[in-house]
Design brief:
By secondary structure, the chain is α+β, with helices and mostly antiparallel strands. It has helices at 2-13, 36-49, 115-124, and strands at 62-69, 75-83, 98-103, 128-132, 140-146, 149-154. Helices cover 22% and strands 25% of the residues.
């Protein structure tokens, strides 16, 4: 009985702080220019998909990969889908940090991002990596929203970057 009274007295003398609610973390909004690790991940993971067939109802579909971060903060492919050629991509989910679009054929006079690719970046302000499946090694471009305009640059085989172009 005395031990119980001592415990109650000790608790009354040294109150325990009320538990605090865990901090709520919201995902950071996607940057206009991809972080270096996202760019290198896109260069390696995106090119691994080059040459693989696309399943589904579209015989000549572009491959689209959505990049997000896993629970440890590393880049990961959140989704992989086939998408009709010559069609603008819809807005991706809010957790998407960048998008990779792999074109089977080039549609422009000079190989590079298509008008649909540029329109996607202008509408969503989200980095887009465009990879050409028509050549080996597969050429790659990063398309980004910079200074209120869409610009693009080449990306080398392991993520090295070229100058921005309009």
């Amino acid at each position: 009985m005395i031990a119980a009274l001592l415990i109650v007295a000790a608790l009354a003398a040294d109150p325990v702080a009320a538990p605090t609610a865990p901090a709520v973390t919201t995902p950071a909004s996607a940057a206009a220019i991809a972080d270096t690790d996202l760019r290198e991940f896109a260069a390696i993971a995106g090119r691994k998909v080059v040459g693989r067939p696309v399943g589904g109802p579209y015989p000549n579909a572009d491959k689209v990969l959505l990049i997000a971060r896993d629970d440890k903060g590393y880049p990961a492919i959140a989704a992989s889908i086939g998408f009709p050629v010559r069609q603008s991509l819809p807005p991706p989910p809010a957790t998407t940090l960048a998008v990779i679009r792999i074109h089977q054929r080039y549609e422009t006079t000079i190989p590079g991002p298509t008008p649909d690719d540029i329109a996607f970046v202008a509408a969503n302000k989200l980095p887009l990596f465009v990879i050409g499946e028509w050549a080996r090694p597969a050429p790659m471009w990063e398309v980004a929203w910079i200074d209120d305009a869409v610009r693009f640059r080449t990306i080398g085989e392991v993520g090295e970057i070229g100058p921005w172009q309009d």
